Amino acid sequence: MTNSSSLYLTGSKEEFSFVTQEKKNNLPKWTETNIKKTQTIKKIVCGSGLNFLVWKKPNKLEFYKKDNKKRKYQLPKNETIKDLVSSRYTFLILTESGKVWSLADSNRYKEVPLLDANQSTFDEIRYVTFFEEKKLFVNSIIMGDGSGYYLCNGDQLYVSGIFFCRMMRNVQYTAREPMPVYVQDKVTKIFAGNNASGFFFITSKSDLLYCCGNNSFGQLGIGYAGGFQMTPTAVKNFKGSEILTLSSGLSYSILITNKGQTFGCGYQTRNGLGVRKTIFTLIPQLKKKKVVQLATGISETLVLTHQNELYGWGFDKGLFPTDECNNWNRNTPSKISLPGFFTKYLESKDMIRISCGSLVSFLYLDFKNTLSQDLRILFESKKFCDCEIGTLGNQIPVHKNLIECRTKLTIDQIQNKLFVEKPINKEQTLNFLKWIYYDEISDFGKLEQTFNLLELTFPPSVDNTLEKDIAQLYKDNDSKDFKILVNIDDQDEEEDNDEEDKKGNYEEIPVHKFILLARSGLFRAMFDYVNEKDNTNQVQDYTNKSIKSLEILIKYFYTNSIEMTTNQDPELIVDELSDSVEYYQLNNQCNFENELLKIKKQFELN
Question: Rounded distance, CA 447 to CA 453, Å?
């Protein structure tokens, strides 16, 4: 068990002592930060130089900057963060309610609407009133170098910032309001990069990929270099639906398809190809790799594969995250070794995260969604569902207790409100179930319609999160539909076949079946075996652990927290639970170990 930070960084010629124990000018290797308790990190975004913003809790942020104390920010309680993005000098925060908030070193490039040029908002988070005044609901935000891009009211594109507006020959480029950008199609997504200088990409309702802006080095991928693309122009050879993600640096762009293939274009030392390309070209070194994550800085790029292999290129000499890479060709992808701390998570999917800024790159573990990741997998597997919702022929299998826990309605009530008089379609049903299972709001408008039909408050409050709902469900013994039988007979005797005696030798721990299915690989295997024989509502635990230890473990499945008192024999329980990660096949190893460490400290155990 360790108390290591899960946040590592690399890459700058600046002094890193404010977040690490190192005193060197350069840190070419991944270096552990002294930022502890980072298992709750949701996202990290970087500004210019050594400053970065960390999103930890639904409405809380932490800001780190050299020669400054750490700052903590909290949005109003009724606001929940949806995303945060950055340029070199500005951070923007988007909330689930469609509002935008800012933190800015200054507003010299006009990225933040209606703020004065030299106004700093680092003392507090500033609400950006422009969008509310114009009756615009902001669905998503992206930033480039000196530019902000906003998808509003579902399909309208707005742009702010001097760099982009000046290049658009807009006489009002010094104005403080975003300008609408005409697109002949409805916009669905926006892509850029926090160091992308005056250019961006969008996908459309008609399944096209468009580009717009500065094309000095062929970074738009339209077959030539030079000039400025004044209006959004289609990029050939790619459909919008094929794009997993796309991100750009100062003068290059990297595109990842849904199949994990990696393409580059633009400046030769940065596009991953080693030669200038003005169309998106498959990067040979990654041809057989399925890439699932992408991060770009000014010139550096990191990609992570589905097997948690890390590759990078474009780093300045001597600043690759591992020493061996510094002798390789920095213009094309080189494999980068992960720190030892991360090797235990190589089999875990969607946990390792990467991020790049102008002078620093980050590697960290994402524990924010361990519960929602577990439930996402359960939902997609459609295993052991006990009911269905939907119209005839379009029913979707679900887990009854989870649905009723999140909505405080019965399955029958939901079925009647959504699928009888004016039934919602399958797409809207799936949009609703994504929120149920893993708190994802993929279509704000459709989810609001569904909530209105169910007569639920929208948007959901911070008290109606997945974590809080599941923690509350632990107390609902009446709805628990499964039992774990624990042998309380200390004697090693032959099993008695008499049912009365057998009942007397066991105690029952009530639990919700879907919780066991979602949180433990061991119980999933048990259910697979048991359900092949009969449809029982109980299973026996053979671990020989005390019933107190198992009760604490089951509660942890609901709450992600281990709690105990002195009368529960903490030393015995910690000892019994120390092998639980491996034995019960838990995904969130670091969080569970940290919880046990807290208990050790609380009761001064060795």
Answer: 10
Q: If you average pLDDT over residues 528-536, what whole number do you get?
A: 59
**Which run of H or of E encompasses 58?**
none
- 306 within 8 A of 290, measured Cβ to Cβ: yes
Between CA 86 and CA 12 the distance in angstroms is 18
List, for residues 217-265, the tens digit of each pLDDT value.
999 999 999 988 888 999 998 998 889 999 999 999 999 998 899 999 9
What is the C-alpha to C-alpha distance for residues 393 and 426, in angstroms, rounded to an integer? 10
62 bridge partner residues: 54, 72
Using alpha carbons only, what angle is made at residue 491 by residues 489 and 495, rounded to the nearest 5 degrees? 75
Q: What's the CA gap between 153 and 23, in Å, rounded?
A: 49
Phi-psi region of 173 (alpha: psi -120 to 50; beta: other; left: phi over 0): alpha
* Distance between CA atoms of residues 443 and 100, nearest Å: 17
- Tell me the C-alpha distance between 158 and 174, whole Å: 16
d(CA 493, CA 487): 12
Instruction: For residue 400, give the DSSP letter.
Output: H
Read out DSSP for 554-606? HHHHHHS-----GGG-HHHHHHHHTTHHHHTT-S-HHHHHHHHHHHHHHTT--
Query: Is residue 312 within 8 Å of 330, Cβ to Cβ?
Result: no
d(CA 144, CA 194) in angstroms, rounded, equals: 4
One DSSP character per residue, 562-574 reads: ----GGG-HHHHH
Number of H helices, E strands in the chain: 16, 33
Name residues whose C-beta falls within 8 Å of residue 289's C-beta, 6 or more positions apart in sequence. Answer: 260, 262, 305, 309, 311
pLDDT tens per residue across span 337-359: 888 777 766 655 567 889 988 77
Q: Which DSSP string corresponds to 100-168?
A: EEEEES--TT--STT--TT---TTS-EEE-HHHHTT--EEEEEEETTEEEEEETTTEEEEE-HHHHHHT
205: its two tokens: 């309702």
- Give the SS3 label for residue 184: coil
Helix 370-381 to helix 426-438 angle (10° resolution) is 140
Q: What angle (nearest 5°) sits at the alpha carbon of residue 548, between those of residues 545 and 552?
A: 100
Contacts 24+ apart (CB under 8 A), 74-78: 75/101, 75/125, 77/462, 78/461, 78/462
* Cα separation, 113 vs 104, whole angstroms: 11
Kind and range of the H or E run holding 217: none
